[in-house]
Amino acid sequence: MTVRLVVVDDHPVVRDGLRGMLGTQPDFAIVGEAAGGAEALTVVAAERPDVVLTDLRMPEPSGGTLIRLLLERVPTVRVLVLTTHDTDSDVLPAVEAGAIGYLLKDAPREELFRAVRAAARGETVLSPSVAAVLLSRVRPRKPTPTGQLSAREREIVALVAQGRTNREVAAALYISEATVKTHLLRIYAKLEVPDRAAAVSAAHRLGIL
After folding, report:
1. What confidence score (pLDDT) does residue 137 get?
2. How many CB atoms lie within 10 A of CB 45?
3. The Cα angle at residue 14 between residues 62 and 97, in degrees rounded to 5
4. Nearest one of 73, 31, 26, 27 to 53, comparing CA atoms
5. Residue in 56, 61, 57 with CA at minimum distance from that of residue 79
6. Fold of the CATH domain 140-205
7. Would you say residue 32 has pLDDT above 90?
8. 118 has a pLDDT exceeding 70
9. Gap between the Cα atoms of 193 and 198, Å rounded
10. Do residues 64 and 98 lie in contact, with contact meaning Cβ atoms separated by under 8 Å?
11. Which CATH number fits domain 3-135: 3.40.50.720, 1.10.540.10, 3.40.190.10, 3.40.50.2300?
12. Using 50, 70 and 90 to split pLDDT, how confident is the model at 136?
């Protein structure tokens, strides 16, 4: 499967670098690029890519607003953030707006390649520092015994263990993708793990599955 990409960044050197780096992968096809939010909306609407790789701070619209508008215009697109900013004020609006992943620009190229492929499959991808920010927000105020998942959380872990994407989990349970992401973050916090693969492993170990 070829992953069709649009790259959005207001720095030409960054766009050139990403285009050259991503172009080394035979399963990636860069179908467009943009230097700001308005241009990104036009390009994405015309090309309808699988994944949009975007920075956050650019000519408006940007950040969470841009992500929300992209998903409103092309609901099938997956938005993967690639930025230098990992503060609460950047991370939370982006995730709440519907970004499927959030990486920092110092990520190794192989990590970026994996993230793009995972995003195309509908899987959430977070850099460790970003995961820490989100977990600090969803971690229960009172200590929760490891493995004490709600009935809904157990259903979600079971579906994830079957290899279902967030979209497929949402369809199976008649809830939104955003709700699935919120449940997953709570599951990560309760199981004290960083991602879905580790959550499935922990759930098996604890006898939840």
Report:
1. 64
2. 13
3. 25
4. 31
5. 56
6. Arc Repressor Mutant, subunit A (1.10.10)
7. yes
8. yes
9. 6
10. no
11. 3.40.50.2300
12. low
